[in-house]
Specification:
189 residues; alpha+beta; two-stranded antiparallel sheet; 26% helix
């Protein structure tokens, strides 16, 4: 009987708790994804860095067998903090919540968060940017989530921030930067 139970658990319950502690090539803490996604029998994660010369994109997704997903992508861009914020203000389907630590910024809408980190990619010169070189991150959920409202916004901000921090180090941005462990908490999250 014990063997049957153990076998069932090994074969049929490969949920979020069975994923590595660090997901998407070490970018995101498993607990961050688990805070957003409902329990499921199976879960899978994938992280991919696509580089083409000086250009790159980092993708990360965590999907459960119930088709719930938390995902994000990081890209280099040329935007000031104001231009970045205005871009998301236009997508408004609810109030925007913002947090920052120095010049690292994040904002969240109900099911979408974005992070902004100044970053001059290798091969670029800071003065060449029309506005400012930066990494921008979009993070979202699809399907059912474990949490809602401000709690979900906080999870999405945390997910986006972790992706930004990992990508910043991976692509070797030119600026020397110390990242805080996490961004400030949003009120009531």
């Amino acid at each position: 009987m014990l063997g049957a139970v153990f076998g069932y658990l090994e074969i049929f319950t490969k949920g979020l708790d069975r994923l590595p502690a660090r997901l998407c090539d070490g970018a995101v803490d498993r607990q961050t994804a688990a805070r957003a996604l409902p329990s499921a029998r199976k879960a899978e994660e994938k992280g991919t860095l696509n580089q083409h010369g000086d250009d790159f994109t980092f993708f990360c997704s965590v999907r459960t067998s119930g088709d719930s997903v938390i995902s994000g992508e990081v890209q280099p861009g040329d935007a000031s903090p104001g231009t970045w914020r205005n871009h998301y203000a236009q997508k408004r389907d609810g109030s925007v919540v913002e947090v920052s630590a120095g010049d690292i910024r994040a904002l969240a809408l109900p099911n979408l968060a974005s992070a902004y980190v100044p970053c001059t990619p290798p091969g670029k010169k800071p003065g060449e940017a029309r506005e400012a070189y930066a990494l921008t991150v979009d993070a979202r959920t699809i399907g059912e989530t474990r949490v809602h409202g401000d709690e979900l916004r906080q999870v999405l901000i945390d997910f986006a921030y972790q992706l930004a921090r990992h990508t910043y180090k991976t692509v070797d941005c030119q600026e020397s930067r110390t990242f805080p462990e996490e961004l400030p908490r949003i009120p009531d999250a």
